[in-house]
Design a protein that fits this description.
The chain has 455 residues and is mostly beta strands. It has four domains: 61 residues; 92 residues; 95 residues, Lipocalin (Beta Barrel), CATH 2.40.128.120; 107 residues. The chain contains one helix and 29 strands. A hairpin with a 4-residue loop joins strand 19 and strand 20. The termini are far apart.
């Protein structure tokens, strides 16, 4: 019995020693710091700034400005570093919003083209809390809107059944920019992708005047050829250009005369314009129909619903051999600045072959095709843009210079030792042919050629 007790005592002591050793290894210094948590209400269209003071006279800013969207805001600031956060008194002040901001106060009434998946890249925010993805099978959703800063907004989108997306939009110009989408399934991050977007329906509210700004007065429908950006269907289409988006590649339709025109971009690898005759009819205060006939038996019938700023939605029925082949839906918008043959966005107008004046291509978008998946180049500012290829989006800086009446040099720089040089030959205003030299590690890697089209 004595031996058994000795053995048990030895085991207990050994266990205690082992436990004490383990606790000694896991122990670490514990530090506790204080923090400041603030909660305040906001109104949509106002900007708020938290401030701190140690003497109720001198006030300093704490954190970044908060853009109000009509919800309560809670913020937590660590006082570990001291400074303005460790103040004796705090207050929230309403400050003037930035006058050069690009982001909207709301997405309600806006349709976005996200340029990612064919048939699923049109996202319509019908109200301040509800929307629908437009495609072959519309997918309704609820969302929560947040204005992050002067140029960025966020939409937390909930489709139900555990399907949620976090969509962050960064506006690089009015009504266009770049997006990042994080897709969650049952609260787990499944995918993250990014791209470029544009507003293809309705308008971004006037960010300098805040919400509630009245819309511009409608154009007199009696004018023979009203402003193409009116919400009233034009009396005639001659001289107007519309862009139709229902999938990955938008269709650009130019109505050259009162009865004829050309279509560019009907197919992703189709760089040749399709000529047509057409019949246009305004059927109501905001509706119209147009039938494009490419040849006997082949025609596209459009039902148009105009919203504000010459934008709206459409239903298109495609007939081949006079038989209905396909029906699709999407959004359209007027392209201002004259026909493609007289200078497109950034163009100078004039004869066929006219080219952008440069050096800025801001607001211009080109599709470069070499027989493979085309590259889309979007010039968001006077010096920078993004390139969208097979699946990725890459930012770049650029220079553009004319070297003749119809030729120009475009240099796209991705980083110091990686760039592309384009020799552009314009043959029809905003389209033509190109030779591209691709440099990597400062050395010429590849040369190819093809055709380009302005979108």
């Amino acid at each position: 019995m004595k031996n058994i007790l000795s053995l048990l005592t030895g085991v207990a002591l050994a266990a205690a020693s082992a436990t004490g050793g383990l606790l000694a290894q896991e122990s670490a210094p514990l530090r506790i710091f204080t923090a400041v948590e603030v909660d305040f209400s906001t109104e949509s269209g106002k900007v708020y700034q938290l401030q701190g003071s140690s003497n109720l006279v001198d006030w300093v800013k704490i954190g970044a400005p908060v853009f109000g969207v009509g919800r309560d805001v809670t913020q937590v600031f660590s006082t570990r570093q001291g400074g303005e956060v460790a103040s004796g008194s705090y207050r929230v002040e309403s400050v003037a919003p930035p006058t050069n901001a690009l982001a909207p106060w709301s997405l309600a009434g806006t349709t976005l083209s996200l340029d990612d998946t064919p048939g699923d890249d049109l996202m319509q925010f019908t109200t301040s809390t509800n929307g629908v993805d437009l495609g072959d099978a519309p997918d309704p959703f609820r969302y929560r809107f947040t204005r992050v800063d002067a140029d960025t907004v966020r939409a937390d989108v909930d489709y139900g059944a555990g399907k949620k997306d976090v969509l962050t939009l960064t506006f690089t110009a009015l009504a266009r920019g770049t997006w990042v989408r994080e897709e969650y399934r049952k609260e787990r991050l499944k995918d993250r992708d990014l791209g470029v977007f544009s507003v293809v329906s309705n308008t971004i509210p006037d960010v300098t005047q805040g919400p509630g700004t009245p819309p511009p007065p409608p154009i007199d429908p009696g004018v023979s050829n009203p402003d193409p950006t009116s919400s009233t269907p034009p009396a005639v289409l001659a001289g107007l250009i519309y862009q139709f988006q229902s999938g990955e590649h938008p269709d650009r339709i130019e109505f050259s005369t009162a009865s004829s025109g050309i279509e560019v971009g009907d197919d992703g690898d189709d760089d040749e314009p399709n000529r047509f005759t057409y019949l246009y009819t305004a059927t109501g205060t905001n509706t119209a129909t147009v039938v494009l006939t490419f040849k006997p038996g082949r025609h596209d019938d459009y039902d148009l619903i105009f919203n504000s700023d010459g934008r709206g939605t459409f239903t298109r029925r495609e007939f081949r051999d006079d038989l209905l082949k396909d029906t699709d839906h999407g959004a359209f918008s007027a392209v201002t600045g004259g026909t493609d043959h007289g200078g497109g966005p950034g163009g100078t107008g004039g004869d066929s072959g006219s080219i952008p004046a440069g050096p800025s291509l801001e607001g211009v978008r080109y599709r470069f095709a070499t027989g493979e998946t085309p590259d889309l180049l979007t010039f968001n500012t006077a010096t920078a843009g993004v390139e969208q290829g097979d699946s990725d989006v890459t930012s770049f800086t650029y220079t553009f210079s004319k070297s003749g009446d119809s030729v120009a040099l475009l240099v796209i720089r991705f980083k110091a030792d990686k760039w592309d040089e384009y020799d552009l030959t314009f043959v029809g205003g905003n389209r033509g042919t190109f030779v591209r030299r691709e440099f990597d590690d400062g050395a010429l890697e590849e040369t190819d050629n093809g055709t380009f089209t302005g979108l």
